[in-house]
Sequence to fold (833 residues):
Amino acid sequence: MKKQAKFGIGIGVIVLSMGFLGWLGYGESKTYYHTIAELQTLSGSELSHRIRVGGSVAPGSIRHLAGRVDFVLEGEGKSLPVSYLSSDPLPDTFIDKSQALVEGHATTDGRFVADVVQAKCASKYEAAPGGTAVPPSKAAMKGSM
Amino acid sequence: MDVFGSFALVLAFICAVYAFVGGIAAIVTRHPLLIKSARQSGIATCCLIFIATFSIEYLFFTDNFASAYVVSHSNRALATFYKIGALWAGQEGSLLFWSFVLAIYVFSVLVAYRNKNGELMPYVGVILAGVQIFFLTLNNFIASPFKALAVPGANGAMEFVARSDGNGLTPLLQYPEMVIHPPHLYSGYTGFTIPFAFALAALLARYPGEKWIHLTRKWTMIAWGFQTAGILLGAHWAYAVLGWGGYWGWDPVENASLLPWLTGTAFLHSVMMQEKRGMMKVWNVWLVFSTFLLCIMGTFLTRSGVVSSVHAFAQSNIGRWFVGFLVVIFLTCLVAYVKNRDYLTSENQLDSVVSRESSFLFNNLVLLVSCVAVLSGTLFPVLSEAVSGSKISVGAPFFNKVNIPLGLFLLFLTGVGPLLAWRKTSAESLKRNFAWPLILGLIGGAALFFAGMREFYALLCFSLCIFVTTTILMEFYRGAKVIRTRSGASFLTSAIELTMRNTRRYGGYIVHMGMVLIFIGLAGAAFTQNVQKEMQQGSSMQIGKYTLVLQGLDTKPEANYTGHRLIVEVFVANKPIMMLYPERREFETNGETGTMVAIYSTLREDLYVVYAGQSPAGSDLPVIHAYLNPLVKWIWFGGVIVVFGTLVALMPNRRAVLVLTGAGAKQTAGETLVRGMTPSVTIREGHD
Fold:
C-alpha cells in the first residue's frame, strides 16, 4: 500500500470516529434556544425538547421553597414562571434583575422546570450608575486633572 | 488625569497611523530615515498607551468618582490590590488593557530588533501598527474608558458630576487570582500577534532563509506559555470561587481561550518539520494566521453577545468592529498567501508512517480536529440557526465525547513522537525505545483494574501516563548517563547539564511531563463525589473518609463586605484533622454576595466545602455542599511544570563546552570551564 494511502486511512479513521462521537454527543446534549415569547407558542413534540431560555429575574420573585426555588424570568414584555429543582446551589450572581439563563423543560401549564440556572458573570456587564450624584464642586475630586 | 489619559490615547492613535503609513512608505522607498521614523513612531505609540493605562490606574487609586468607569468598577473601601484588577472589570478598561499588553510586546520587538533583520522589520512594524490602530480606534472612539460621569441637568443638557463613592467591584473579581489570571490570558492572546506579524511579514517580504521561522517559534512559545498559565489560572479561579466543584464547563469564553492554544500547540510541533526538513510550510503559515484569527474571534465571541455565555460582556455593537477586523485580516492573509505561495514550496515529502514527521502530522490532525470540534460546538447556535432556523446549543457531553479520546490519543503521541526517528524508524529502534514503557504502562493499567477501577477512559489515561512518563525518564536517563560517564558528576547534575545543552528538546520533555500530570488530574474527575445537607450546629455529614461536623457560625464585618463563616471541623476515622471555614460574603455597595470555598487539598484528593446558603425549606439552617474531587492538585502542579518547561525551552543552549581538567587550565574565549568534569567536547547543539 502506498504511504499516502496509509496516511489517508489514518486521517479518515480519526475524522470519521470523531464525527460519530460528536453526533452521539450532539444527540445527548442538544438544547433549543427560545425566547420567552416563543416558548408560549410551542406545542406538541417541541415541548419535549430540552430548552434554554434567557431573561431578567423579576424583582422580588425569588422564593425559596421546600425542594425548589421559584422565580419569574422577564423578557420582551413577557414573563415566565420558573421552578428550579436541582440540588446544585444557585450562583452568587443570581439576584433580582440579574440576567439569567435557565435550561430544562417547558410544561403544558406554562411553567418552566429548570435543572440548570446560570446568571451572567457580573464582572462583565456594566453596573448601572446608582447612588446620589453630587456636583463636582461638592465631591471629592482628588486626582482629577 | 482623565483628560491627560484621553489625550495620550489620541496621540497614540495618531502615532500608530504614522507608523503604519510611514512604514508602508519606508518599505516602498527603502529610505533609511523613513524606516527609522516609522519605527520611532511605533515605539512612541507604545509609550503613549503606557501613559494612558497608568492614568486610568491613577484614577482608580485616587478614588476619582468623576470618571464613569471608576464609578462603575470601584469604591473607596476596595482594597488597593483589587483596584489594579478593576481596570479590566469592564469592556472599556479591558480593551485598553489589551492595547497595553500588546504595546509591551510591540515595544519589546521594535527595540530588541531595531538593528536586526533589516529587510523584515519594516513589514513587521507595519503589521503591528495595523493591529494597534484597530484597538486604538476602539479605545478612542467606540469604548473609551475616560468618559466623565454625566447626568441630564435641569435644562436637559448633560452635566458633569462626581459621586461621593463608586458602585464597587463585583465580588467575583475580588479574589487574588483575578488580578493575575486576566493579565496572563491577555498576554497569551496579544502575544500571538507577534508570530503573526513575523509570519505575514516574511511572506510579504519573501524573506530568505529560515530565520523568520525561529523568531516566530520563539514568540509563539512565549505567548503559548502565557496562554497556558492564563487558562489554568482561570480554571483554578472557577474552581476556587464559583463554588460548583468543577474547573471547566465548556463555556464559550473558556472555549475561546482554548482555541488559539490548540492551534498554537499544533504550530509549535509542526514548525519542527519545517526547520528540520523544509516541510509543511504552507500549513505552518496558516497555523500562525489561524491562531491570531482565533484570538480575535475569541474576543469577538465574548463581546458581541452572538453566543450566550455566563462570562459575556453586555451586548453591544462592538462585535461588528471585530467582524470587520477579522475579515480584513483574513483577506490580507489570503492575498499575501496567493501572491507568494511559491515561496512556501515544500522541500521534502513524508517517507514513512512510522516516523517523527508522521507523529507530528497526527499530532496536528488531533489538535486541529479538537479545535474544529470546540469551535463548531461553541458556534453551534449560530450555525444551526443559519441552516435550520432553530437555535440549538450543545453542552458538555458533546465536547467531552470528542475531546476525551482525542486528548488520550494526543497523550499517546506525546510518548511516542519524540522517540521516533526522522524519515523512518526501524523495528529495532521501536523495540529499544518502547518495550519498557509499554510493559510498565500495561502493568500499571492491569494493577488499577484489579484494584477495582472500571472507568475505561480513566484506566486508559493512567496507563498512558505511565507509558509517557517512562519514555521521558528514559530519555533523561540515557542522556544523563552519557554525561555522567564522561564527567563523573551525579545523575541530577548530569540531567541538568543535559537539559542546559539542549534546552529546547529537554524543556519540551519537561512540558510533556507537566501535561502528563495535568492528564492525571483530569482523569480524577471520573471519581468525583458530592453531598449536600442542611446542618444544625453539632450535626455531621459524611463524604468519602471525611466526617464534617458543623461547630458553629460567625459573622465578621470587613471594610468592603460582611463575611458569614461556617466553622467546620473535619475528622478522619474519628480523629480531627483540620478546621475549614466556608464563607459567604455580602457586599453592601452593590448588594451582591460572594462565595469563598474552603478546600483541604492533598495530592490524593480535594475536600471542597461550600456554604451553599440557607435552607430553602424555611428553617434558615445553613446548607453545606461538600465535594470530594480526586487528584485535582495534579492539574495545578502540572500547569506549573508546563510553564517551567516552557521557560527552560526558551533559554539559550549552553554554549559548546570544552571541558578541561587540571589546576593550571585557563579559560579561553569560547570555552567554559566546568569544575570537576573530565575533558570532552560536547555533543552537538540544537534540537530535535
Remarks:
- The longest strand of chain B covers residues 546-557.
- The mean pLDDT of chain B is 88.
- Residues 1-169 of chain B form one domain.
